[in-house]
Each structure stands twice: as C-alpha cells, then as structure tokens.
Specification:
The complex is a heterodimer. Chain A is mainly α. Chain A has helices spanning about 1-10, 25-65, 80-85, 90-95, 100-115, 125-130, 135-150, 165-170, 175-180, 190-200, 210-215, 230-260, 265-275, 280-295, 305-325, 330-340, 345-370, 375-380, 405-415, 420-450; strands at about 70-80, 155-160, 205. A 3-stranded antiparallel beta sheet of chain A has the order 2-1-3. By secondary structure, chain B is an alpha/beta fold. The radius of gyration of chain B is 18 Å and the shape is globular. Classes of the chains: A mainly alpha, B alpha/beta. The interface of A and B includes residues 340, 341 and 452 of A.
C-alpha cells in the first residue's frame, strides 16, 4: 500500500531513475561475485578431498599390490628314503623324528646339485647363501607332505616353494643392488645369482593365493604370512555382529520410536544412546575386557568376544540410523493403517517397517562396515596375538578359538621390522578396502531395490 | 463449478447413531473443545463447518479415538455409539476403528497395490474366509467408491500411482471395505481439483445409504451440497447444530450467520 501511495505522490519521495537491465548494478555485481567465490570454494574443497583420496589409494595400491605376487623356487627334489626315514619302516611316529632341519639340509643340497646340473654358476655365493634362497616355510611344507604320503619317499618330485623375502623383494623391485650393498642379509652376488636363476626358470613370480589363505607367519619367514586367520576371524565376527545387532537395534528403535511413552526416562535413554555413539571405540575394548573376559571368563582373542564388543559399539549407531528411518515414514501412513483398524503392532510391521527397511539396511551395513574396520577395541581383548592355527569351523565352536581380524593384522604387520611385512600390510589394507567397498555397494543396491515413493 | 441440485438435502432419518454428551478435549493444558453435545443420525451426512482451529477436526477424531495417538490429548465426557460409550475402559480403540472408518484430508494410500490397499482392512479383521470372498469385497468396495471401472484392469498396480482424486476414492474404498457403520471424512476434498471433488461429493451422497457419514469441510458450498445436518463450531464451542437447509438459510446464532456470510473465519 505504501508503495502505491508513494508513486502517486512523486514530490514527497522522488522515484529512483530507471536503470537499464543491460547494465549490472553495483549490488548485483557484488552478489554475483559472492556466489562465484562460494562456488570456487566448494570446487576447491572437492578437488582437495579427491586428490587426497587419490594419493591415499595410489600409495596403498603401489605398496600393496605386490603382496599378491610371490617369488617361488621350483626344482626337482629326490626324497632320499635313507635320510627321511632312517628306520625304513614308513612309520609316521618314526618319520616325525626327522625335523625340518633334516629337510632343510636335503633341500639345500638338492638345490645346489640342481644349479650345478643346469650349469648355473654360483660364483661368489657361498653354499650357505644359496641355501638362504629357500624360505623356511618350504622344508616345513615338504615335511608335512611327506608325512601325509610316505609313498613319495625315494621318488623325485618337483618342489615349488617360496623364495625368501629379500629375493622376492628383488624380483618385485623393492630390493635393489643399492640397498643390498647396505643390507647384511643379502649380497649383490646373491642378486646376480637370482637373475641367472630367473632366466633359467627356477625362480619365478606368480599370483600368491597363500596371501589370502595362509595363517600369519613369524618374523623369519614373512613370505609365508597370509590373511587366512584374519579373514576367518573377521567373517565370524561380522556374522555374529549381524545376528546380535540387527534384532537388538531394530527392536530397541521400534520400541523407542513407536511404543515408548515420551517422558523423562525415554529422554534420558535417547540422550545416552546419542552419547554412546560418540564414545571412543577403545573404551568399548576396556569394557569388553572387564566384562566378557575377566568377569564372564570368555576365552581371550576369540571372535565371540570381539563380536560382543563390536555389537556394543555398533548398537548406538544402528539405533540412531533405524530411528531416523522409522521417523522418515510419513505419519499419514500410520494414520491410514490405524484408521482402518490396524493395531499398533500391525501398523508398525505391515507398513512402517517395510517403508523404513531401506534406511535400516543401509544404516546397518554402514555400521557393520565401521565395525569391520575397527582395531582399537580388538587390541584390548587380545585379538592382536600371533595366531598360527586356523580356528575351527563355525559349528565346531570356532568362534571360541583364538583368531585375529583384518584391521588388527594390518596393524600387527605394520609394526614388524621386515619390509616384506610392510608390503603385506598394504596388501591387507587392499583386501579390507575391497570388503568395505563391497559392503557399501550392497548398501546402495539394497537401498535402490527397496526404495519406494509415496 | 460443480452444481448439485439433484443431491438430497432433506433429513429423512431419525435414528441416532452417535450421541456426544459434554465432550471436552484438552491438548496438554490447552482446551480445544468445550462441552460439545450432539446427536448424529444414521444414514445421514452430517457436516462440521467452522473457521480453522475451531475444533471440528478434533471432534471428528474423537469419534474413532484417533486422538489416542496424540499423547498429550485428553478427552472428557462421553460419546455413545449405538448406546455404548466408546471411551469406556473396556473398549479397544482398534476394534472401534473397524466400525468407524476414516478418510483423511490428504489421500494416503498404502504404497502397495490397489488390491492390497482395499484388501488390507478385511484381511486384518478376518472378514473373509477365502480368496474369492476377498476379491468380492474388493470389487464391491471399489464399486461403492466409484473407482472400479477405472482400475479393474490394473488392480496389481501401485495405489500411489493413481491421480489425486482416484487416490482419495481408493482411500474411501479402503475405509468402506471393513464394513464400517460410520464413515468419518476429514476435509476429504481439500487436496482435490473441482472435478475430483464433484466425484467424491456424489460418492458421499451414495454412501449415505449404507453409513452415517460425518464430514469436516472448509467449504460451505460443499456442506450445503452434500449434508443434511450441519454443525457449526467456533473457538472450541459447538455453536449451532441443525438441518443444513435451516443453518444456511435461517441461522439462529449471530456467529453462525457471520461465518456463513463471510464476516468471521
């Protein structure tokens, strides 16, 4: 109204001169500049995060991809019955008396003999240094094989075993002649010999399934170390966490969101759940140690205890995600169901839950993904231990056997001195990332599949 | 605009279906409804009119105890459905809502198929023993809601894929399917265009044959067109209740007259 009056009385307030649409006013220029600046900030932020991500992935992959390949030595070995079974009766107990040292000597001698036979010069390399090519893992495996099949005794078989970490490193380019000069564990002459053996096909680098299946190995034989136990441990824990956290989390959320009266107690519970989601994960480890191991006397280092701790840790996250998903279901759907005479429970289970399902599933999978990558609480309940034996099957109480987990394996390998373990540590991160990416993709697919519009 | 000279607006019924005596509703400390006494007749369309916030929707939601879902709401007084107090401790509101169906302001079909939308009520109340019976109920309900011919070939499609007017008729079919005795409608046409409104209004008149219909509306024209009885609410009071023709032509309370002539509200 005031505008109308002022235009009718131009004498009181002179109307501003009409500006052309073709020229920008000063204010407009300022507004546009501010917008352009904001866009530039946003773009810069995205570029920085993307490049950091790219650098991170590049470092991990350039360090870790080589962990999936492994140099191995292949040469014929005559299994001398005299040395391996001195009594000659093929009795397992008797044959057990020949230790891996006996097999090591046999393998060393056979390798030297084979090199000589093929005319490969071992000039400048002592017999002991040639023997150092063979991983300590190989005699142990050969011994197991012979004990398993005594009929092999006396035969000549083709043995393929890991080469030691530094020879492997040389093939992969981690060990060079420069570093070898400063390294007391390897000499340049050995590297020359490795080149000759590679040319002759005795030494070759192949895809290493053992990295995914073998248990952890000691500092003396990094080439034999694998993720087998960690993968089983992580799989057991994730399965247990899903089984425990999903019913608990969903039931708690439904109750709080749909049934609980709004009063001081539910407010208190809500605040506490939000706070629990922010508690540092290592605190859950201390809790798990105190309750599950010291009080309830569950076995240390077991996936069961790990899963219980991770369940406690994930529960608040999942409750928060589930409640958000339930709250996002429009109230008109609840009214509609109640209006046709559905009970509260029918309303929730027939209408609210199906609509909230994609949100619940995504929240759960993301919660599980964070649990999969969790290290700190597992350190406290002893899952960082060196575990050389596979846990039993899930039905044979395997969840009570000592095991370790993927992120913990990354941590423990990264803290060892041999560079071969650093490579494996990066390799384990790749495996872990592959799992996380898979879980996230599943979350996206489930969301797409179940998402409905109303 | 839709004009409906053919709709019946005379009161032909005398059986009381719902009797409200001294109904007071509080939301927390605030009193939303004061001392409402009303007799709603069977097989009659009763319209509740009044300005926004006058308590007409609140009273409607008392009739099937939907106010129970609001934790701060408190209802006093008594509401009798066929002589039984629906606020009696022994009454299960879930059972009550099967008898007193409701259609909401915004069409709110379930995100399920058209068939499942209608079949849901009969299913949970165990009204049918076989698939054939259920099919029959679905067809009858959709026919009553004047939707059958439009959807009979695509019962498996999502109810949410229909147009607004069709969705609202689907909601009516869903409410009708549980064989209620009273049908409550909370501004059922406010989200619809004039053509869909006309269809729903025609439908309401047809539904009168089977149920007592109570409709809350902001449109006085609509109240005049579809109802036989009208109640005017103002500031939480039931100001006037009587025959629609009487209320719109010769209101006894000055406030009613002011509202109808557009001076308040």
């Amino acid at each position: 109204m005031t505008d109308a009056t002022s235009s009718q009385v131009p004498a009181a307030t002179p109307a501003p001169a009409r500006s052309s649409l073709l020229t920008q006013s000063a204010l407009m220029k300022k507004r546009n500049a501010a917008e352009a600046r904001f866009k530039a900030y946003g773009l810069a932020a995205i570029c920085i995060s993307l490049s950091v991500l790219a650098i991170m992935l590049w470092t991990i992959f350039s360090d870790g991809v080589s962990a999936f390949k492994q140099a191995s030595l292949t040469f014929p070995v005559t299994l001398d019955a005299e040395t391996l079974d001195p009594k000659g009766n093929r009795d397992r107990a008797e044959m057990m008396r020949v230790t891996t040292i006996g097999y090591t000597k046999l393998l060393n001698a056979q390798l030297l003999a084979h090199l000589e036979e093929r005319g490969i010069s071992t000039e400048g390399v002592s017999d002991k240094d040639v023997a150092a090519f063979i991983s300590r893992d190989t005699p142990a495996r050969l011994r197991d094989m012979v004990l398993e099949q005594p009929a092999l005794l006396g035969q000549t078989i083709e043995v393929s075993g890991f080469a030691t970490g530094r020879i492997d490193g040389y093939i992969k380019g981690r060990v060079t002649r420069d570093t070898a000069e400063r390294d007391t564990n390897i000499s340049v002459a050995q590297l020359d010999l490795a080149d000759r053996m590679k040319d002759e096909g005795i030494l070759a680098s192949t895809f290493n399934w053992g990295f995914l299946t073998n248990p952890d190995a000691s500092d003396q034989r990094p080439e034999a170390a694998g993720l087998g136990v960690a993968l089983i441990g992580s799989a057991y824990m994730m399965a247990l966490v899903v089984v425990m956290v999903l019913p608990l989390g969903v039931a708690a959320s439904i109750y709080l969101e749909e049934f609980a009266p709004r009063n001081r107690w539910t407010d208190l519970i809500e605040v506490n759940i939000s706070n629990l989601a922010a508690v540092p994960s290592i605190v859950y480890g201390i809790l798990g140690l105190a309750i599950f191991i010291n009080f309830a006397k569950f076995p240390q280092s077991s996936p069961l205890v790990g899963a219980l701790v991770l369940t406690l840790m994930t529960l608040p996250t999942i409750i928060i995600a589930t409640r958000a998903a339930i709250r996002a279901v429009p109230p008109s759907i609840r009214d509609a169901a109640l209006g046709v005479g559905a009970s509260k429970m029918q309303t929730v289970f027939h209408h609210v839950l199906p609509l909230a399902a994609p949100g619940i599933l995504t929240g759960t999978i993301l919660g599980l993904a964070s649990a999969l990558g969790e290290t700190a609480p597992l350190l406290l309940i002893g899952m960082v231990a060196f575990v050389a034996n596979y846990p039993a099957g899930p039905l044979d109480g395997g969840v009570l056997d000592p095991a370790t987990a993927l992120p913990v394996q990354v941590y423990s390998w990264a803290s060892r001195s041999d560079p071969a373990f650093i490579e494996r540590s990066a390799g384990a991160i790749i495996v872990l990332l592959a799992f996380l990416v898979t879980m996230n993709i599943i979350a996206i697919i489930l969301r797409r599949k179940f998402e409905r519009r109303w | 605009m839709y004009d409906a000279p053919n709709l019946e607006t005379r009161v032909t019924q005398t059986n009381t279906k719902i009797t409200a005596r001294g109904v007071q509703v509080f939301y927390g400390e605030k009193q939303a409804l004061q001392d409402v006494n009303v007799d709603i007749l069977d097989n009659t369309v009763t319209a509740f009119i009044g300005p926004s916030g006058c308590g007409k929707s609140t009273f409607l939601r008392c009739l099937n105890r939907m106010n129970d879902t609001i934790s701060s709401a408190r209802v006093e007084g008594e509401i009798l459905l066929d002589g039984e107090n629906i606020y009696d401790k022994r009454v299960d509101p879930v059972q009550l809502r099967a008898k007193v169906g409701m259609v909401f302001q915004k069409p709110n079909p379930f995100p399920k198929s058209i068939y499942d939308n209608v079949a849901y009520g009969p299913k949970i109340h165990g009204l049918t023993r076989s698939k054939a019976e259920l099919d029959q109920i679905v067809e009858e309900s959709l026919r009553k809601a004047a939707l059958w011919n439009e959807v009979k070939d695509r019962l498996g499609e999502a109810g949410t894929g229909l147009s607004g007017g069709q969705q609202q008729r689907l909601c009516i079919a869903r409410a009708v399917a549980t064989a209620p005795e009273v049908l409550l409608m909370d501004e059922p046409c406010s989200a619809l265009d004039p053509i869909a409104t006309a269809q729903v209004e025609e439908l309401i008149d047809e539904l009168r044959a089977s149920f007592s219909v109570v409709i809350v509306t902001h449109s006085m024209q609509q109240a005049a067109r579809v109802s036989q009885k009208t109640a005017f609410f103002h500031l939480g009071h039931l100001v006037e209740y009587g025959d629609t023709s009487h209320i719109f032509t010769n209101p006894s309370d000055p406030r009613t007259e002011s509202y109808i002539t557009g001076r308040i509200g």
